[in-house]
Amino acid sequence: MATTRPETILGDTGIAVHPDDDRYRHFVGKSARHPFFADKYIKIVPDHYVDQNLGTGAVKLTPAHDPNDYKLGQAHASQQASKYVLGRPRDHFVPQTQFEFSRETLYEQWILHRLNAAVSGVNETLEAKEFSKCTQILHQFFYDELCDVFIENSKALLVATPEEQPSIFNTLYMCLDVSL
């Protein structure tokens, strides 16, 4: 499967194939191992949206990525990332005041690094009165990095590993608290 947006692979929740495509018909309903994470599986679903004559004839699904992926995700019961994660904290959730990088997952370390880069970029562009660049930095962080990658990826961890849930919520809280 090919992509023009490899940075969104971390947030993939499925693979869509055309239901009449003989190359993939026997895979429909099965799951494929995520290319970056051995313990994450994504489902293979049939959908007439896929053009079987374009590229490989298989489309990766990242529901927070664009309107088409969002519609496919809705049609195939893939949850919207932000609603999923923000709706999951337990009543006893209390945010941490400090982070220990050695205890955070790779996803969390990455998004906190991207948060720091975004904060620096926003501060620099505001000082220079480059408001358009500032907006681009914010859009990239919230849309591409936080939603497309971190939150999409967090869904699998929240379902599979309850012991990591507080850490994920703390990281999300930190991202929202610092950036807002």
Automatic annotation (TrEMBL):
<feature type="domain" description="Methionyl/Valyl/Leucyl/Isoleucyl-tRNA synthetase anticodon-binding">
    <location>
        <begin position="108"/>
        <end position="179"/>
    </location>
</feature>
<dbReference type="GO" id="GO:0005524">
    <property type="term" value="F:ATP binding"/>
</dbReference>
<keyword id="KW-0648">Protein biosynthesis</keyword>
<dbReference type="InterPro" id="IPR009080">
    <property type="entry name" value="tRNAsynth_Ia_anticodon-bd"/>
</dbReference>
<keyword id="KW-0547">Nucleotide-binding</keyword>
<dbReference type="GO" id="GO:0005829">
    <property type="term" value="C:cytosol"/>
</dbReference>
<protein>
    <recommendedName>
        <fullName>valine--tRNA ligase</fullName>
        <ecNumber>6.1.1.9</ecNumber>
    </recommendedName>
</protein>
<keyword id="KW-0436">Ligase</keyword>
<keyword id="KW-0067">ATP-binding</keyword>
<dbReference type="GO" id="GO:0004832">
    <property type="term" value="F:valine-tRNA ligase activity"/>
</dbReference>
<comment type="similarity">
    <text>Belongs to the class-I aminoacyl-tRNA synthetase family.</text>
</comment>
<dbReference type="InterPro" id="IPR009008">
    <property type="entry name" value="Val/Leu/Ile-tRNA-synth_edit"/>
</dbReference>
<dbReference type="Pfam" id="PF08264">
    <property type="entry name" value="Anticodon_1"/>
</dbReference>
<dbReference type="InterPro" id="IPR013155">
    <property type="entry name" value="M/V/L/I-tRNA-synth_anticd-bd"/>
</dbReference>
<dbReference type="InterPro" id="IPR002303">
    <property type="entry name" value="Valyl-tRNA_ligase"/>
</dbReference>
<dbReference type="GO" id="GO:0006438">
    <property type="term" value="P:valyl-tRNA aminoacylation"/>
</dbReference>
<keyword id="KW-0030">Aminoacyl-tRNA synthetase</keyword>
<dbReference type="GO" id="GO:0002161">
    <property type="term" value="F:aminoacyl-tRNA deacylase activity"/>
</dbReference>
